[in-house]
Recover the amino acids of this structure.
């Protein structure tokens, strides 16, 4: 998983890039407040780690935009190179 972030600070805009693997996906359900449910994607890399929290609406948006294009990925191969 590649992570690319633009962050504003006193020096201006700083671009950060990192690589990591998805370690866990956690679904947080709140039975008393079902609108506050979230999906957390936990990742860890060599020099970075983090949690990406998504609302159910954001997951539906991603799903709606990715599913029609899945046919493009069927012939793809993932190549890994040793550093």
């Amino acid at each position: 998983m590649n992570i690319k972030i633009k962050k504003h600070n006193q020096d201006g805009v700083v671009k950060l890039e990192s690589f990591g693997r998805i370690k866990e996906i956690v679904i947080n359900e709140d039975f008393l407040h079902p609108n506050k449910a979230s999906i957390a994607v936990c990742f860890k890399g060599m020099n970075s780690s983090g949690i990406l929290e998504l609302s159910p609406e954001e997951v539906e948006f991603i799903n709606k935009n990715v599913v029609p294009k899945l046919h493009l990925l069927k012939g793809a191969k993932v190549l890994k190179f040793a550093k």
Q: What stands out?
A: The first helix runs from residue 56 to 66. The radius of gyration is 16 Å. The chain has a mean pLDDT of 85.
